[in-house]
Design brief:
Layout: E1 17-21, E2 28-29, E3 38-39, H1 43-47, H2 49-57, E4 61-65, H3 81-91, E5 95-97, H4 104-111, E6 118-120, H5 135-142, E7 147-150, H6 161-165, E8 172-174, H7 176-191, E9 196-200, H8 205-218, E10 221-224, H9 229-235, H10 247-261, E11 266-268, E12 273-277, E13 286-288, E14 297-302, H11 304-315, E15 319-323, H12 336-347, E16 351-355, H13 357-365, E17 374-375, H14 380-387, H15 392-395, H16 399-403
Parallel strand pairs: 1-4, 1-7, 4-6, 5-6, 7-8, 9-10, 9-15, 10-11, 15-16, 16-17
Antiparallel strand pairs: 2-3, 12-13, 12-14
Helix pairs in contact: 8-10, 8-14, 9-10, 11-12
Length: about 400
C-alpha cells in the first residue's frame, strides 16, 4: 500500500489553497485561576510541522482542519483557539482562526490567504455531518480549497467528511507524517527484520483480538502483558483473583490460545506478577512468584522474572512492535514492568515501533521517546492497519482510489 500512496511531492501547491487535515486532538490545560485554556502537550502539533513547513515553503495557502475532543455542537471549551496559538508559536507565523468550520465568511478568509499563510478552521466536530461523512459538509469543505492533504494517520480508520469524503472531491495526497506511518507499518507486515517480536499489553483482549491473531501469523514471538494477560491465564485454568478479567475476554482468549497452538509464532504469557489488595491500587506491591492470584488480590503489573524475560527477547530481536503498557505504570510501585520493556526497546539495535497513546506516554514519562525508531501517532488506526484492514483515510489517497474517481 505504501508504494501506491500519493504524496505531496506529486502536487503543485504554489499559490493554491491546500486543505490540510491534521491531528490536533491534543490535551488541554484549564487553569484554575480562570486564565485562557492552553495546550498541555503539543506532541501532535509538532508531528505536523514537517508537512506544514514543506507546503508553506512551496507557496501553499494553508487551510488547516482538525477535530478536538467530542463536542456536541459548538463548544468554547473545545475551540481550536489554543491550538492555533500554539502552532503560531511553533512556526513563528500568524495562524488565523476562522469563526466557524464552513460558510461564506470562512470561504472569503480562505480566498484572501497569501502564499505561505495559514487559516485554521474551527473544530470540525462542531459539525454533526463530520462523523456521518455528510456529502453536504464535504461540498462545503471543498469550497475552501483547491487541493487536499491528509496528515492525520490517527483518524485514518474513520470514514469521516474531513478524512475520507473530501479526498474524493479534490486532488489529494498524503502528508509526510501519513506517508511515514504507512511505510513504517507496511514494513512490519511485509519485510520485518527477523526475529519480529511483538509486545502487546493494555486492558481488553476482545479489543485487540484481531491484531493478536495477525501477529500469530506475522511474528516470531508474541509477548502478552498488562491486564490482557488475565483472560489468557484464566483460559488456561489459572486463578486470577480480583484481576480485570471479563468473561467475554476469556472466550476470546481461548480462541487465541487454540490458534497459537497451531502457529509457528511463540506465544508468551507472564510467569510472575505484581499484586495489590483488591481496590487498593495505592498499596505497596506484593510480588507473586507464579500466576495463581489469590482471592482478594489484583494483578497490576508483570513481575520481575517476566520483565527480564521479555527484555531479553527484545534485546535479541531484529524488529520490535510494542503496543500497550505492562501494568499500571502511572503508579510508581507498578511501573517496573513497563519501564523494563521501555528500557529494552530503547536499548536494542533492532528497528522499533511503539504505538498507542498510553505506550507513547510511558516512553515519554521514562524520557526514552527519542530512542525509538518510530513513535506511531495512531492508536486504533495502527492496530487496524496491522490487522490488514483497509483504512478509509489511507485508501482514499492511493493511486487506485484516485484513478477510480
Amino acid at each position: 500500500m505504501a508504494d501506491s500512496l500519493r504524496t505531496i511531492d506529486e502536487l503543485d501547491v504554489e499559490g493554491r489553497r491546500v486543505l490540510l487535515r491534521a491531528d490536533f486532538n491534543v490535551p488541554l490545560h484549564r487553569p484554575r485561576s480562570g486564565g485562557p485554556i492552553e495546550v498541555a502537550d503539543d506532541t501532535r502539533i509538532r508531528a505536523a510541522l514537517e508537512t506544514i513547513a514543506d507546503l508553506r515553503a512551496r507557496g501553499a495557502r494553508l487551510v488547516l482542519v482538525s477535530h478536538l475532543g467530542r463536542p456536541k455542537g459548538p463548544d468554547p471549551a473545545l475551540s481550536m483557539r489554543p491550538v492555533a496559538d500554539r502552532l503560531a508559536e511553533l512556526t513563528g507565523a500568524p495562524v488565523l482562526l476562522a469563526p466557524a468550520v464552513t460558510g461564506p465568511e470562512v470561504v472569503a478568509l480562505s480566498e484572501r490567504l497569501a502564499s505561505g499563510e495559514m487559516l485554521m478552521l474551527e473544530n470540525i466536530r462542531y459539525e454533526p455531518g463530520e462523523t456521518r461523512n455528510d456529502p453536504e459538509l464535504v461540498s462545503a469543505l471543498a469550497e475552501l480549497a483547491d487541493l487536499y492533504v491528509n496528515d492525520a494517520f490517527g483518524t485514518a480508520h474513520r470514514a469521516h467528511a474531513s478524512t475520507e469524503g473530501i479526498a474524493h472531491r479534490l486532488p489529494s495526497a498524503a502528508g509526510r507524517l501519513m506517508e511515514r506511518e504507512v511505510s513504517t507499518l507496511q514494513a512490519i507486515v511485509e519485510r520485518a527484520d527477523r526475529p519480529l517480536v511483538a509486545i502487546l499489553g493494555g486492558a481488553k483482549v476482545t479489543d485487540k483480538i484481531g491484531v493478536v491473531e495477525r501477529f500469530l501469523e506475522l511474528a516470531d514471538l508474541l509477548c502478552i502483558g498488562g491486564a490482557m494477560c488475565f483472560p489468557f491465564l484464566a483460559a488456561q485454568g489459572h486463578r486470577v483473583g480480583a484481576s480485570l478479567c471479563p468473561e467475554e475476554d476469556v472466550a476470546s482468549a481461548r480462541r487465541v490460545l487454540a490458534a497459537a497452538a497451531g502457529s509457528s509464532c511463540r506465544f508468551e504469557l507472564p510467569i510472575d506478577l505484581s499484586l495489590a489488595p483488591e481496590g487498593q491500587d495505592e498499596a505497596s506491591r506484593r510480588v507473586l512468584d507464579g500466576v495463581e492470584v489469590p482471592d482478594g488480590w489484583s494483578g497490576l503489573d508483570i513481575g520481575p522474572r517476566t520483565s527480564a524475560r521479555y527484555a531479553g527477547e527484545i534485546a535479541a530481536a531484529g524488529t520490535v512492535f510494542w503496543n500497550g503498557p505492562m501494568g499500571r505504570f502511572e503508579l510508581e510501585q507498578f511501573a517496573a514492568g513497563t519501564r523494563a520493556v521501555a528500557e529494552a526497546v530503547a536499548a536494542t539495535p533492532a528497528r522499533t515501533v511503539v504505538g498507542g497513546g498510553e505506550t507513547v506516554e510511558a516512553m515519554r514519562s521514562f524520557g526514552l521517546e527519542d530512542r525509538v525508531t518510530h513513535l506511531s501517532t495512531g492508536g486504533g488506526a495502527t492496530l487496524e492497519f496491522l490487522e490488514g484492514r483497509e483504512l478509509p483515510g489511507v485508501h482514499a489517497l492511493t493511486i487506485t482510489a484516485v484513478s477510480a474517481r
